[in-house]
Every structure is written in structure tokens, then in C-alpha cells.
Amino acid sequence: MVSIIWMFIDDNDDDFKVYQRKFRQLEIENEEKKLIAELEAVKDERVGYEEKLTGAQTSFKAKQSQLLDAESLLVESQAKFYKANMNFLNQKSILDAEKFNYETAMLHLHEGDDPAEIEQTYQVVIDKVYTLRLIKEEKEAVMLAIEDQIKEIKFETKIAEDELNSVLKAANLVDRKLKLIDRRKMSLANKIGDIVRDLPILDFMAPYFKVEQVVLPNIKYNVNFASVPEVDRCKSCHLGIDNPDYKNAEQPFTTHPNLDLYLTSSSKHTYEDFGCTSCHAGRGRGTDFTSVTHTPSSPEQRAEWEEKYGWHEMHHWLKPMLPVNYTEASCFKCHQDEANITHADKLTMGLTLIEKNGCNGCHTIKPLESRRKAGPDLARINEKVDRKWVAKWIKDPKSFRHNTRMPSFFGQSNNSEPDDIKRNDTEIYTIAEYLFQDGEKMSRKNDRKYLGNAEKGQEIFDVVGCRGCHIIEPDPNNLPEDHNLTNLLKEHGPNLINLGSKTSAQWVYDWLKDPNEYWHDTRMPNLRLSDEEAKNLTAYLMSFTNPEFEEAESIQMSDEALDKIALGWLRKMYPEMEAKSRLGKMDLDNKIDYVADKSIRYYGCFGCHNIPGYEKDKPIGTELTFEGSKPINKLDFGYIHDLEKTNYAWFTQKLENPRIFDKGKASPPEDKLRMPNFNFSPEEIEALVTTILSFSEDEVGENLLASNYVRDDMVYEGRKLIKEYNCQGCHIIDGFGGQIAENYSSPEYAPPNLNTEGAKVQPDWLFNFFLEPSIIRPNLQVRMPTFKLTDEEWNAIIRSFQYYDNQPLAFESDFHVNTSTTKYRAGKKLEELGACNNCHFYGKEFPKQGAQTWAPNLALTKERLQPKWVIDWMEDPQSIMPGTKMPAPFLPDKELLNTPGAVSDWGEHVVKVGGDRETMLEGLRDYIYSIKGKTDITNEIQQYFEKNGYEFEFDEEDEDEDW
Fold first, then answer.
1. pTM of the predicted structure, to 2 decimals
2. Contacts of 199 by beta carbon, 8 Å cutoff, 6+ apart
3. For the structural domain made of 710-804, what CATH number should be given?
4. Does 710-804 match 54-167 at the fold level?
5. For residue 936, which of 768, 823, 782 has the smallest C-alpha distance?
């Protein structure tokens, strides 16, 4: 008996029921507040309707005796109608039987049968039915008349009630909900039923407090090698999660952030399809705080939970809930093909860091395979730098460039002892020797020939577009404190400090003139610099030096260490005697080559760099494809006992100090940890850990994959190329990027915002522009560079722009203008009144105003722009390109065109249009499309600025003008 009672009590004491009881009270309080608010909102409006209802009710009371008499008559008439109707229906059934007899008798007449007599018998029954029908209809008419009389008596009150209810509609809905959840407002019978249904054992029927569960057939998890649909019960406790009314409530009742994106039926991630565990992980079938595997985000929160909830880890559940700061890791399972994942900046940053730092050069990550090596091609390194520089660089890259992406292999926690340093210097020396097998070809003898004016070079660097990818910042204290995606755009290329201590002026000059000639796969574009510009820029870049690095001692090889290293590697392959024998047969050059080869392979240099002879070597690091799902017991914590036993803690520690898990171990040098130290910031480490956690075995259905909604693979490929070549370093694309604008006096002199680019330009023009860029915005010093992309890659970028602007057609029919229409002539007049040539070129015809106001060549419009986009642009330029100085043309309305003198002011054709705004915009567009003249005015623009310079003079008036 005790056990049974205990079972009853325990069954009714689930954690989720406790939360649901609390939420019910919270819900009652919330609905009561809403009811008060709704009543308050209509308090003035409802007074008149309540008075009208009161009057109607008074009138209704005066007619009570009349109503009672009518209702009494109605009951009597209903009885009479019922009787008459039953008589009619009874006789009708007899008629049906007689009809069958009649038809049968007439069809099978026997000798002696009288057809007239048979028909007369049938007709008698028909007449009787007809008579009873008339009686029924008479009684029905009397009943309906009395009902109409009763409705008439109640009509005035009903109308008044309906009018009042329409005002109180929202309040009534809240009141009805309150009556369902608040026992104080329930009838006695409902109150008893509400209590009984939640009693122990009985609550299996229709309880109020119950497990809220959703099955997610497209979200799978692995159970003993079988994929099982996720069952999500999180809403059993998180009851207000999809209701905006609870955004200020405490956990677990608070509203989920961003309901436009998550959980609601109108969002992209509905609760029915994604639940909670698809994003947050955890044990979806759990119904108490611990069994769902909540994970604390800090040691302080862990201590709080242990005290408050009795929380403890569920060691055997492989997918504990992700801490809040790593939740974005779950986005990757559906968005693997996207270059930039919207609303997941941390994950996007982590993915970007992996590509920029070449993590996927050493680690196989199948969803994120390396598109190109992260580091430069070393095939011709001897033309760029000398052997001594390379050796010092390998040993300590940050001593030359403080924020280089090149990681540190040496001077780490497991190789900093004196013997280690001697060994490392020898390895470095041999690697440098291998890279310079063809000797040193870099020479500074002719540097003066390639150096121009450094001050002018700085001007070029600041304006032509270099700052879209590069910074020049010698002082690490001046770097941005925030490590985010925007600042990553500035560091797409290296910090260009200390080049004067690295290479020759000739190499820099040649590189600036044609980067692709030195390195075929470089992402560095060609800015089409003139010889003078290249020399000036070379002089500026070569002015930055690092005397301390130059004066540092050269790396020396130890013969003893060389033998020791070679023997160590030989022992890994051969028995002791044979290893020593092979070493004895090697001369010095053989040993250097052997150690260089082993060192390059050991450190995996070819993961980031193209090194001749290592093109087919495989990545040396652990495969990370499913690293986020790796069980904790497969991560080697070594002797680091104070580290939290979670995968994200291990990943964090590994990224902070990659060699730390060698601490206390007596491993031979060949078996030590070798992952280099990238010196990531805490923000970068958190982003990378988020990304590593995203590499999991989680499975989702095809219909949940983001790529499933984009049928054209070129769309994603285009976005990846835009990211890979850092287009957003100069341009705003999808609302992100354009950081280079901060280097200009005004955004209008920076690269253009590419919002609506897919709808804006004609694809064939854009393709040709990419191949041979020409000047579009005449007064811009920033220059669209030339990239060595294939036709397929350019088409992918164009298709990507088109897709995101909903432009399904690659090519369309030519747009033809009829110059004889009233619309066209009205447009010509509007162009004249609008003085478009104040700012715009008409072919080689220069604008009337100064260079600071110059705008694109309108003779190019017909080749460059889409006709519909031109209309949208003139309608509202600011909505397409916020901050533009392009004004919307002033168009007269119908009223203005009906004033005296309208024809002389606006012209007869504009007046004929009658103020039709769309027609006027179309006419203006048509006229612009008919403007003739040279379309490529690059030479004319360049000649003007070579003569006059870019020093614009701004009047105070100009600065105040809206356009």
C-alpha cells in the first residue's frame, strides 16, 4: 500500500508539472492584465454601446408579457406543426408503397384487371397526401409567424449586444481564455472536472498538465547505428517560448529571441519541423532539468545549478545540450553550402578563420574541403626573399609581422628547452635549404630603378583600393580590439609592414604590375597600375622596415643535432643497427635533404603551401569531419586534470595552447604534438570551437537543407567566390561589407553598394565589365581590379547576384524606345527641366558642374542597366542605395498640371500625361536610353584627372544639399 501511495505521489510530482502549474498562474496573471488593457483601450467607445444596450434591455422588459404569450403560442403551434408533419410523413410513406403497387399493376395487367379502377385507388392516396401537406404547411406558417414575432421583440436587444461585442471582441477572447484556465471563473461543474482530470493515475485521460511533445521525422540521431527521429519535449517546461507575451518572463517561461526566424508557424524554422533540440542539442525525451542534459555556460552557473536543481552531468548521453555561446554550431547541419550564414555570425567567422588559416589544409573536413592553399606558393620563393630571411621567419613569424596568420611551430610549450631549440634550428635550416635548392635569385641591386615617390605611393594605397584587403599597421596596439567578421575583411591580405626588410623593390614592383605571373593561383588582383603608380606604391611599401629582425642572428645548423634527428627518423622505420648503418652512409647533403623532407612532412608545411615534390601528400592532422560528435573518452586530456571534461573545453584548450596535452609526457621528439600556435584571440577561439562543434554526425532530412531551396549550384558557388576574393572588403553585398568606405571623405567616393545588382545590370554587360573593367563613376579614385577568374566562375557570381534579386532570366529581349510617343517627349522635357547633365556625362560631353558631383555616363545606360531597375531607381534612390546624392526627379502631379500656365512651365507633352507618375518615369527612362555618345570614356576621364588632379573643392552649399 505504501508503495502504491508513493507511486501516486511520485507520478504527480514531475518537474514539468511543477513548471506547468507555475506557468498556469503566470498565464492567468498575464491574461488578466491583457483583459484590463483591452477594456481600458475601449472604455470610451463602449460607453455609448452599453447605454444603447441598456435602453434596448429596458424596452425588452416592457414587452415581457407579450413575449411570454408569444412563446406560449409558439410551443402550442410547434406541437400542432409536429403532429401535422408526422401525419403528412406517415401518409407519404403509404403513398410510396401504393406507387410501387400501382406501377407493378399497370405494368403486368392480368385478364379482367380494370386500369381505371387501379388508377382511381392510387389517386385517392395522392389526394390524401396533398390534403395533409396543406395542413402541415398551414401549421408551419403559423409557427414561423410566431417565431418572427419573438425575433422582432428581441431584435433591438440583439443588435445592441452585437454592436457592444464587436467593440469588446478582443476583450471577450481574453475573457473566454481566462474561463478555461482560471478556476475562479469556471462554473462549478467545470471546476470539478478540471480538478478531477489532473488527479494522480486519472490524468492519463485528458490532463491539463501533460508532456508537450513533438516528433521531428526530419531530425535524426544515432541509436546503436540506427537513425531515429528526434522526440522533442522541451516545451513541457518552456511553455511561453513561442509566445511574444512572455519576453520579460523568467526562465523557463521566457520567449525565444527572434520569433520571426524561429519557432512560430510563419518563421523559417517552425517548432513542428525543427523543435528545440535540433539547434540546442540535448536529450529531447527528458522531462526534468537534469535528464534533458542542460549544460552550464560557466563554472558559476554550474555551481548555481548544482545547488538549486541538484544538477549533475549525464555522462553516458553523447549529445549534451550546447552551452548558449555555442548554439550556432547547429546551423551548419542545414547550411553547409552557404558562404555566409545569416544570423550565425560566430559560426560564419569560425568557418572563415578555418579557410583563412588553412586548418582544412592539415585536417580533412569533408563539408569544408580546402578550395586553395592558405599560404603563398613556395615554388619560386628564392625570387622573393633570401634564405636567411626564410629561416628567421619560420622560427618566429610574429617577430617580423605581429599579426601574421602564419602560425608558430617553434618556441612552444613542448619544444622550448635548450636541446629542443638546437633541434628546431637544425630543422628550420634544412627546410630553408630545401626551398632554395636552385640558389638565391632575389637581388636588391636594381632597387633604385623601381622606386618612385613614397608620398604619392601612400596616396595611391589609401584610395585605389588596397585597403579593401590590406592594412599597414606597425603598432599592434593600434589594431581593432573587436575580432569580428568586419575586421576580418581588412585582414584578407597580410599586414604590409616591413616589406623593406623582406624582399626587393623589383619583386614588389613586378608583383604589383602582374601578381598572376608570379603565382598563378593568387587571389591578389591586378589594379592595372601605370609604371609610375607602381613605382610610387613600391616606394611606399618598401619604406617600412624591421631593423630588429634584420639584425637578429641567422639560424644555424648543428651537425650533432642533424645526426640525432636523422637517426631518430630512421629508427622509426628500421631496426637500430640498420638505422645507424644507413645514417653512416649519408654525406652532409644527404642528411640535410633527409631531415628537410622529414621535417616538412612532420610539420605539414604542404598543407598551406605549394611545395614542389609534395603536391600529392595527404593532410597530416586528425580528420575533423565529425569532430563535434566524438565521444569525450576519445579526446586525450593527458595530465591536465583541472580541465572540465567536455569536448568544447578540450577544443578551447587545444586552440589556446596546442601543445599543452604533452605536459608531463616523456614522448620522443618524433611523437610530440606538432599543431602550431595561431595565437587566436578569445573571440576567435570561441568562433572556432563553435565551428568544430558543428562538424557532427547529426542528420537532417533533405527538405530541411537550405540548399534544397536553391536548385542552381552556381548561386552558392558565386557567393563562395565573392567571399574567397573578398569582394565585401570593398562593396556592400547582402547588407554586409564595404569597410573600405571609412578611408574616404564620403561614402560616395568609395566602391559602390551592390544592393540590387542582380536586378540592376544586364548580365552580358557585367560579364564584359568583369573581364575588362572601365570607369563607371568618373570621380572615383578607387579602382575595380582585374581578377583571373574563369568564365564559369564569373557566371556563378552573376547568377548569384541575379538569384538574390529574383532575376530568373540570364538574357532578355533588347529594350526598344519609340521616340514618337507622348510619353517619350514628356520624358525628354522632364530631363531638360531636371538638368541631369549637371552631374552626368552624355558620352564625351562633360557635366556642367564640378568633378565632385560627377555621376555615371548616361550614354552607357542602354548597355548597362535593366529598364525596370531604372524606374525603381528614379522612384526612390535612397531605398536602393542609402546615402546616395542622387535625387528622385521632381514630377508634377495632376493638380499642378491643371494650374494656369502649366503648358508653358512643363510643356504640352507632360501636361498630356496628366500627372501619371509611372508614365512620366517611363518616359524619362526612355529618353535616357536614347542618349547617344561614347560609352567607354575611361581615357577621357583619366586625361582630365592627370591634368587637374583629384583635389575637389566643396562649397558649404554643396555639403548641405540633400542630393
1. 0.84
2. 12
3. 1.10.760.10
4. no
5. 768
